[in-house]
Amino acid sequence: MALMTGEQYVESMRKMNLQVYMFGKKIDNPVDHPILRPSLNSVKATYDLAQDPQYEDLMTAVSPYTGGKVNRFTHIHQNTTDLMNKVKMQRLLGQQTAACFQRCVGMDAFNATFSTTYEIDKKYGTKYHENFIKYLTMCQEKDYTIDGAMTDPKGDRGLAPHAQEDPDLYLHVVERRPDGIVVRGAKAHQTGIINSHEVIVMPTISMGPDDKDYAVAFAVPTDAEGIMMIIGRQSCDTRKMEEYNSIDVGNSEFGGVEALVVFNDVFVPNDRIFLNGETEFAGMLVERFAGYHRQSYGGCKVGVGDVLIGAAAVAADYNGVPKASHIKDKLIEMQHLNETLYCCGIACSAEGHPTESGNYIIDLLLANVCKQNVTRFPYEIARLAEDIAGGIVVTAPSEADLRSDITGPYVKKYLVGTKGVSVENRLRILRLIENLCLGTAAVGYRTESMHGAGSPQAQRIMIARQGNLPMKKALAKKIAKVEE
Ligand code: SF4
Ligand code: FE
């Protein structure tokens, strides 16, 4: 089975025995839980769209490992066209879901681990690359969703992993056995983990020789013994539990999800280990994964931005001001910012190059510039959307008030906009804007734009490293005819 249908994917998740906790209680059926289901629907969209002939080129690729058609989310990039198609696919999915569709972390972990394991083996004669190819072929054949787990809790940020008072604040090996290793620790902010079949765990920072036990990468099923997931709260999440849960949630069908994932002495068999003590390669894996994920944001956030820009334009129509010059100019500004992000996503892909292993990697400088812009522009786009929508975006009465016999007539009378537009439709658009800027989707659009794939300073360090300032100084001296 090379491609699952959306329904098959949902059923495959239903069969998993995940240990999911929310509000202090175990959730026995995360697939059908009203707070969690929208996030599953977003991942399901990655399967549904892959079945649609009009998106075949974007959503699927031919794998050199299975020889067959696979979902692009499990693909190893073979050229710069693959890299660009990845970004286009992410924009498409952002447009269709207006949420984080979660499956990219696995795709980015796949490509980073592929090339890094090749280089470790070359130096040490290990078998990580062989392990990894076997693993990825299995995932492609089963059309799995894979989570990529990088961020450790980190404790005292000024201390190295081995120097932490609690040794578990970075995930580490606690036991080495002939048949594998046992790991303990946690990974924070894990996007989509509850909707994934597998998880690839990677280190979160560069490491020194004393961090040997912390330099570890591997894959396990998400329901492996010892894994526990604690769902992250999102603003307005319990609106999905209310009696009227269509309008106020803003986006009733799709969403994203993050969790704190605890690894309580999880066993990893030898053939699922991709790094084990080769500390100098931790940094390479981190840098490559982060680079790919910073590229990703030039696609997904742009697609969600398209929806937010559209929502702001509809709000302006409903308010009767689509022709006001300042409104038109604000919509132009939003589009300018959004397309600038897309330019960065495409540019770092077009300027990609092959790694030693043969797969393609983005231009790291441009990918970091892409993500640095993402830490800013969606905030400005959200600000302009709130400006255009008006204060009603945060003061509008609830859907229950709209439906009530007592308050409904007043809500309908006084929240009216232009002639012919129903108050219900006006509320729907306002709630979508609220959702993207301040509600459950704000995790994926706003704050994740800041911190996802690394906080702004992480990109500035990479820009400093990749920017080649000495070359630029030499250019200036040459033009100015400076002789030293
Ligand atoms: Fe994909 Fe974007 Fe979500 Fe990351 S934030 S998993 S790139 S949709
Ligand atoms: Fe993310």
Account of the protein in words:
With 484 residues, this protein is an alpha+beta fold. It is 48% helix and 13% strand. The strands form 4 sheets. A 6-stranded mixed sheet has the order 2-1-10-11-7-6, with no helix packed on it. A 4-stranded mixed sheet has the order 5-8-9-12. A hairpin with a 5-residue loop joins β13 (353-354) and β14 (360-361). It is globular. 52% of the residues are buried. The model has no long low-confidence stretch (mean pLDDT 97). Residues 191, 448, 452-453 line the site of fe (iii) ion.
| SS-derived structural category | alpha+beta
Radius of gyration of CA atoms, rounded to a whole number: 23 Å
Main β-sheet description = 6 strands, mixed
Query: Can you give the mean pLDDT?
Result: 97
The percentage helix is 40-55%
Beta content: 5-15%
In DSSP terms (H or I, runs of 4 or more residues), the helix count works out at 17
Shape: globular
What molecules are bound to this protein? iron/sulfur cluster, fe (iii) ion
By DSSP, the count of extended strands is 14
What is the distance, rounded to the nearest whole angstrom, between the alpha carbons of the first and last residues?
Answer: 67 Å
Strand order of the largest sheet: 2-1-10-11-7-6
Uncertain parts: none
